[in-house]
Automatic annotation (TrEMBL), chain A:
Protein family membership: Belongs to the sigma-70 factor family. ECF subfamily.
Superkingdom of the source species: Bacteria
Any one Gene Ontology BP term: DNA-templated transcription initiation
Organism: Nocardioides alpinus
Keyword terms, alphabetized: DNA-binding, Sigma factor, Transcription, Transcription regulation
Protein name per Swiss-Prot or TrEMBL: RNA polymerase sigma factor, sigma-70 family
UniProtKB/TrEMBL annotation, chain B:
Classification lineage: Bacteria, Bacillati, Actinomycetota, Actinomycetes, Propionibacteriales
Protein name: Uncharacterized protein
Length: 157, 153
């Protein structure tokens, strides 16, 4: 379960060490509250929801922290677009990576969270992503369409 | 609303992110360590085996020689005295101030058998059972669940 939580939290743009902190808080929250989760089948969904909330809260807290220049710079240079990252991908995945990089933050986040969730809860997602619940489905479709366009363009180059 | 094409694309994205941004190698172990070192006492009690007749010199009193006596304590202060003998598992919950009638005791064996019973008003229980292999006790009281380690018979 931890690897799935990793991707969900990283979707919110946190650096690797902040992502670890959020995941740890998620697990500790689970330990404290697990008896209140009546249905064992619901555990995975509880963990994912809690990780998303933790990641969203961490983003808000980080915004309030008003980072100094160096930190702002580091945040503006995401490690996920490094040459090392692309080197581990095969051609098709590298093409996909390049296409994802052209999407805006909101699309990237939404697609990554949805990709790692079996049955996305649109209502909860709408709160965490600051989107009206009715717009998640259309936004998802629009983001996938933009991704397809970027893939096609990339293929023509 | 979700087309097969969308599903395929999302599958490809998932695969791409798994490879491009994998979790740190020790992440799962770190999380397990964090959970283990958290203060679990209030959430999930461990019944600690403090006396086991199998670990003591042979009983001097005839008639008890075949009985296995186990004595567990919980951090909350109460304890469980159990005796396994002749097709019965009997015992008593001691030093518990709450409603005895709401307490459930479960005996489980590693081969998958399980027996559950409630206590009488003074905390006694008796289960018709001949557990073999290893067994453990689980006590449910109030909102908490306390389990013992597996004890080999």
């Amino acid at each position: 379960m931890t690897p799935v939580l990793w991707h969900v939290v990283r979707a919110y743009g946190h650096d690797r060490s902040s992502a670890e902190d959020v995941i740890q808080a998620t697990w500790l929250g689970f330990v404290r509250l697990h008896r209140t989760i009546a249905d064992p089948q619901a555990v995975a969904s509880w963990l994912i929801t809690s990780a998303r909330r933790g990641a969203a809260a961490h983003t808000k807290a980080a915004r309030r922290a008003a980072p100094v220049e160096d930190e702002a710079l580091a945040a503006a240079l995401p490690d996920e677009e490094s040459a090392e990252t692309v080197a581990v991908l095969d051609d098709e995945a590298a093409r996909l990576w390049g296409a994802v990089a052209t999407l805006d933050d909101r699309c990237r986040r939404l697609l990554r969270v949805i990709a790692f969730m079996d049955r996305p809860d649109y209502h909860a997602l709408s709160q965490d992503l600051d989107m009206p619940v009715g717009s998640i489905g259309p936004t998802r479709a629009r983001c996938l369409a933009k991704l397809r366009t970027a893939l096609t363009r990339g293929g023509e180059r | 609303m979700t087309t097969d094409d969308d599903t395929q694309l999302l599958d490809a994205l998932r695969d791409m992110w798994r490879r491009a941004d994998p979790p740190p190698p020790g992440l799962t172990a770190t999380m397990i360590a964090a959970v283990v070192s958290a203060d679990l006492d209030q959430e999930w009690e461990l019944l600690v085996l403090v006396r086991d007749s199998a670990q003591e010199p042979a009983a001097q009193v005839r008639g008890l020689a075949t009985a296995r006596m186990l004595y567990f304590t919980a951090a909350e202060g109460w304890s469980l005295d159990a005796e396994i003998d002749g097709g019965q598992v009997r015992g008593q919950l001691l030093d518990f101030d709450g409603d005895m009638g709401s307490v459930e005791v479960t005996v489980e064996t590693t081969d998958g058998q399980s027996w559950t019973t409630s206590l009488d008003e003074v905390g006694f229980f008796a289960i018709e059972a001949e557990p073999t292999g290893s067994l453990r006790f689980t006590v449910r009281l109030g909102g908490s669940v306390s389990s013992s380690v597996w004890v080999a018979l």
